[in-house]
Amino acid sequence: MTDEKTESRLALFAQTYSADLLVSQPTVGLDDLAHQNQAYAGTGGTSQGNHGRGYSPAYMDAETGKIVASSFTDGRPAPIHLLCGLPDEWILNQGYSSEEPKLKESIIVGFVKNDIFYTRAEAAKACAH
User: What is the pTM of this model?
Assistant: First the structure.
């Protein structure tokens, strides 16, 4: 059972993204985060580009609407996107030291501001105004 806040986030997400995008989204790993940072360099689509505007790095599970702020393993908020503080069920190959950690396909990289989740593109656009 979901609460009203989660249902509201899911409805907003459904209006913004098609099911095709979610199905075709590749899993995210550390190299992918670095490539995303390069793609959004100089914009509000990076932690460096939007931190002064109140955004915090976060992830959202598109299947459930659950948002998790990026954090260090000890729970302190992280200033950048890290994989180490995410729920175990979000990591596909948790505990396999020979493989790079990857997120399950429904996890979206983005930011949170005032309890609202923004994708990198949405944050970049919002910060450009």
Answer: 0.73
The Cβ of residue 102 has, within 10 Å, a number of other Cβ atoms equal to 20
In angstroms, the CA 83 to CA 47 distance is 15
What the block records as the tokens of 17 is 């993204």
Residue ranges per domain, the chain? Answer: 4-128
At a CB cut-off of 8 Å and minimum separation 6, what does 106 contact? Answer: 22, 25, 61, 62, 63
Rounded to whole angstroms, the Cα distance separating 129 from 5 reads 27
DSSP-derived 3-state class of residue 72: coil
Model confidence over 79-93: pLDDT tens digits? 999 888 899 899 887
Look-up of token digits 């399950």: 104
